[in-house]
Amino acid sequence: MEQYRTRSPQYGPRRDRPPGPPRQPVPSQAGRGAGGEPVRAARAPGPRRRPAQVRRPLPAPAPAAGRLPNPRLTGLGGGLFCAVVMFLLGALCSALFGASMTAYGVLFLPVCVLTALWVRRGDLMTAPVVVPIAFVVGLLPVADGEGGAGGTLMGLVTALATQAGWLYAGTLIAGLIVIVRRIRLVHRRRTAGARPPV
User: Fold this and answer.
1) Does residue 29 fall inside a structural domain?
2) In whole angstroms, what is the distance from residue 87 CA to residue 134 CA?
3) Distance between CA 72 and CA 63 in Å, rounded?
4) Which residue in 25, 60, 143, 150 is deepest, having the highest Cβ count within 10 Å?
């Protein structure tokens, strides 16, 4: 009997046959690497978020050349401002106009207007109070007196009696300005309170 030779199996790919395509992973092993570790799918590149821009406060606008200053004075500051200005104006009137009460009264009116406009909102009611006091302070260098405290006091009382019209006019102007500002302030507060929340 003839015995057929059996060839020993050769491991590895044959030389005459080209290597085939790589094997696809088994569905149960999909998403895992060669060692069995889970493989994360690469995310599609999305739109990058830009960092939020920091808003810097705008610089305060420079005051215009022809614009009047608009300070905010306290009640005490408004009284000191009015008294000092009126005393200086009284001294100026006494030196230039020979203690003219008319010039002093005319200069008193714009000082009343400025005091009522520049006092801050919380001290509005102080403006009509400090204006008459400043009028009396400004009369010290203007009032004619024969000398001494008694003469100065008599000259001051005489000036107040004869120039009461300027005093009442300045106080009335300051009071009207304060009332208008107060009404506007109350109206703004009511308008702001009536607005629906955003």
Assistant:
1) no
2) 8
3) 15
4) 143
Domain extent for 166 = 159-192
According to the 3-state scheme, what is the secondary structure of 70-126? Answer: CCCECHHHHHHHHHHHHHHHHHHHHHHCCCCHHHHHHHHHHHHHHHHHHECHHHHHH
CA distances from 185 to 115, 117, 119 (A): 18, 13, 13
pTM score, whole prediction: 0.59
* Stretch 145-174: mean pLDDT: 83
Tell me whether residue 114 is in a domain: no
Give the residue-averaged pLDDT of 129-142: 90
Closest CA to 181 of 133, 108, 115, 111: 115
Assign 38 to helix, strand or coil: strand
How many structural domains compose the chain? 1
CB distance 130 to 162 below 8 Å: no
